[in-house]
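Following the same procedure, sequence and fold were stored together, as reproduced here:

>
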Amino acid sequence: MINKVVKDAEEGVKGIKDGMTLMLGGFGLCGIPENAITALKKEGVKDLTCISNNAGVDDFGLGLLLQSKQIKKMVSSYVGENDLFEKQMLSGELEVDLVPQGSLAERTRAGGAGIPAFFTPTGYGTEIAEGKEVRWFDGKPHILESALTADFAFVKAWKGDKAGNLIFKATARNFNPIMAMAGKITVAEVEELVEPGELDPNEIHTPGIFVQRIFEGTNYEKRIEQRTVREK
């Protein structure tokens, strides 16, 4: 069996160079590769293109890489909770490709499946469609969207084994499984790392064939973006 286990996040990000394209799983702050993001900040690589649903918050998640100005371009669907992201985008300091959320997911899935492009009605008649081929299917206009792939994909799972098989828990099963498929090198950080054969094959979401590196993460904060509680 190929040894895919690396010691920690610092070893997991080795080989990343300036100007590379990275995918980072997660939705809001749920299921983000916290350890890998911290290691990327320490590594100091810059001019990165990051593909992620959003960019965390100002002081957490991808917001850490925005603070240190390591990201040149964001491909994402939601700006929402990150004031720094919004400020850098409006000032022109950060290049941003805003993609409808469903299209972002399908472009990523297509990249992992080896499908170069597909037609979708989403975005027709908006700025999203500018410069893209249009065809009509069943009487409706569709635009051509290209697949997305990355030099490295960073995902975060609940459990994984040393062969790279992954199980995601609840909402963390968002962009993580499809991004694991679309990276040339996929690095998985897990809350619990077990021996091969310990995971129920029927519960595995991502087969180990898609994962090149895996490590057990530490000190997960699992922040909540907006804590809402009922009044007493």
